[in-house]
Amino acid sequence: MEELGIKSFDEIATLPKGTKIKISQIGYYNYWYPSHDQDFDIFLEEDISAVKVDWRGGGDKWEPYRVTAETARKYGSPIKVIWITKQRGNDNV
User: Fold this and answer.
1) What whole-number distance in Å separates Cα of residue 12 and Cα of residue 3?
2) How far apart, in whole angstroms, are the C-alpha atoms of residue 83 and residue 62?
3) Which of these, 16, 45, 59, 62, is most buried using a 10 Å CB contact count?
4) For the segment 13-35, what is each residue's pLDDT rounded down to a tens digit?
């Protein structure tokens, strides 16, 4: 729980295997956004635990989640935040 920066298990979400994600990329005014340079799809290979972050920048398509350093490294995100598609179901493998 400490690595995700939470105080209660109630804040933890389980993101299911097959969920489409984007890694974080620095953008305007040094804020973090879902990567616009990522020209391929990435899908979670397993269920992961994450905490929703109250950030803007994902528009209508993406929402940010804080993950462990290990998960961020595995998927290539430079920070411990990945962006999850808001359209779940048809969009996933």
Assistant:
1) 12
2) 6
3) 62
4) 999 999 999 999 999 888 999 99
How many other C-beta atoms lie within 10 A of the C-beta of residue 40?
A: 4
Q: How many domains does the chain have?
A: 1
Closest C-alpha among 62, 66, 71, 44 to residue 53: 66
Beta-carbon contacts of residue 34 (< 8 Å; ≥ 6 apart) = 22, 23, 24, 25, 57, 58, 61, 62, 64, 83
The model carries a pTM of: 0.81
Structural domain harbouring 61: 9-85
Which of 22, 28, 30 has the alpha carbon at shortest distance from 77? 22
Percent of the chain whose pLDDT exceeds 70:
83
Specify the DSSP class assigned to residue 70.
Answer: H
Residue 80 lies in a domain: yes
Residue 51 lies in a domain: yes
